[in-house]
Structures are given as structure tokens and as C-alpha cells.
Amino acid sequence: MSDTDTQDADATLPDVPTPAAAPIVLLNAFPLDRAQWEPLIASWPEARDRDIITFDMPGIGEMPLTDEEPGLDLIADAAVLAMREATGASAAVWVGCSMGGYVALAVAQRWPDAVAGLGLVCTKAAADDEEQLERRRAAAEAAERAGGVPDPRAAAESLIGTQGPAREELVEWAALNLSRQRGDGVAWGQRAMAARPDRTEVLRSVDAPVVVVLGELDSVVRRTEGAAMAQAAGVEPVTLAGVGHIAALEAPVEVAKALAPLLAS
């Protein structure tokens, strides 16, 4: 085939753009919807030249509830396929808070070649112990009975660690967001998290930058759990003073700075 023939053949191929930099996928804390990421996106100028993907978990926000059995692997698989289809990239920087961190770890285990970076914010790699499992089962049943989060204000109070003048606005925002979530979606999420395995060992084999961010006042994830996750990843955790479980909502500028190493390459 001549050079002209080769050029003509190439001209008929579909134009599939390749991203200049790995896209970023932001995975939600439970059971808030993806609006929780808006302050971080606005405070992260280094990320603005990249594709940023946010989406809701099954039955949360705009995402319909699936008929599939509750499980985080389902979310991880769908997220990787959607990311690749939407961006044309093979790998992304995955940033997950709480439940989102569990999903990010599932991606790292099931799709290691899809991970260009891993940001784990106020989450853990360990599976739930029996006491935590019992709380999840009870919370799932309560959400189904109530048709939503039974007491959004109390739930918001437990998620937000920030004290002082900024606290009330954050608690009100979280309570309003929680009040919009449906009971069947909340129950599905609780059962999906209860079914997850321990993924501590997954972190030892991640071939990409890893950042672990902890909230000093996180009442959901124990400090020892976060420290164990960071140790497995071979990194020092970044602990944010005065911050609770939804760190990217409470301290978006500080979280953006902590996650900066994920965008270095």
C-alpha cells in the first residue's frame, strides 16, 4: 500500500480523542448525592483542565435504584466502563469519600489498569465488624420503614465535625441533602457496604500514587482504621484539623491541596 493509500485509510477512522491527562472520578460519601463535590471542584484549580466525573450511587439523588443485589462491585464495574466510554481514557484518578472510598478500592482490585491515582478520604479498607454490620442492618430496615433517612438532622450532625460559626450552615446543607434521599436507596447502600470484603491487601499492590486524607473529628471512621489503610498503602495520612467525615465539603481547599500529588503525572 502506498503512503497516499495509508493516509486515505487513516482518514476514514473515527476520531476518538485521547485525554491529555487522566480524568478524575469523584465517588460520593453515603448517603449524600453528588452535590457534595461542588465545593471541592470549585477549590481545585489544578483539576480544571481535566474531565471530572461525578455520579450518584444506586437509589441516591438522580440515579435509579437497580434490581441487582446490593454490592459495591456492581458500582465499580459500571463506573469504570462509564468513565472509559465518556472520556476515551483507559485510567482515571479515583477519589472516594466514605462509601466512595470503598468503591474506589473495589476499582483498584477489579480494574487495576484503570487506576492512575487513588484518593481515599475519610474511609477505610477494612470490612465491618459484627457490631457495625448489625448497625447497618438496623439502619437499612429503619430507612425502608421511614421512606428515607429517619432523622436527617441527627445524621447530618454526626457527619459534620466542623465547629464554630461555619457549623450550622454545613449541618443544614447536609440535613437538607439527606432529607431528599429515598429509603430504598439508603437501604440498598447500607446492605452493599455490609457485603464488602476487607480490601487492605489491595492497597499493597496499587501501582499508582495514593493519598489518604483523614478528618481529625471524624466520628464515623476510626483513626486507627484510617492509619491502617495508609500503612498498607505505604503513605503517611494527611489529617485535617477540625474536620469531620465529609472533609471535601467541610474543608475543600485543604482537601484539594492534599490530593495534589495525584495530579502530578
Notes on the structure:
The structure is a single chain. With 265 residues, the protein is of the alpha/beta class. It has a domain at 21-126 and 197-263: Alpha/Beta hydrolase fold, catalytic domain (Rossmann fold, 3-Layer(aba) Sandwich). Helices cover 45% and strands 11% of the residues. It has a 6-stranded parallel β-sheet, with helices on both faces. Strand 3 (92-97), helix 4 and strand 4 (115-121) form a beta-alpha-beta unit. The chain is globular and about 45 Å long. It starts with a helix and ends in a 6-residue tail after the last helix.
Keywords for this structure?
single chain, six-stranded parallel beta sheet, globular, Rossmann fold, disordered N terminus, 12 helices, alpha/beta, 6 strands, 265 residues, 45% helix
Provide a concise account of the structure shown.
The protein is an alpha/beta fold and 265 residues long. It is built from 12 helices and 6 strands. It has a 6-stranded parallel sheet, sandwiched between helices.
Secondary structure layout plus pairing:
Elements: H1 3-11, E1 24-27, H2 38-42, E2 52-54, H3 72-87, E3 92-97, H4 99-110, E4 115-121, H5 130-146, H6 152-159, H7 167-179, H8 183-194, H9 200-203, E5 210-215, H10 223-233, E6 238-240, H11 247-250, H12 252-259
Parallel strand pairs: 1-2, 1-3, 3-4, 4-5, 5-6
- Main β-sheet description: 6 strands, parallel
Helix content: 40-55%
Our count of helices gives 12
Q: What's the arrangement of strands in the largest beta sheet? A: 2-1-3-4-5-6
Q: What's the rounded overall pLDDT mean?
A: 92
Poorly predicted runs: 1-18
Distance between the termini: 39 Å
By CATH, the superfamily of the domain at 21-126 and 197-263 comes out as Alpha/Beta hydrolase fold, catalytic domain
Helix-strand makeup class: alpha/beta
**Which topology of the domain at 21-126 and 197-263 does CATH recognise?**
Rossmann fold
Secondary-structure arrangement, i.e. CATH architecture of the domain at 21-126 and 197-263 = 3-Layer(aba) Sandwich
Rg from C-alpha positions?
Answer: 19 Å
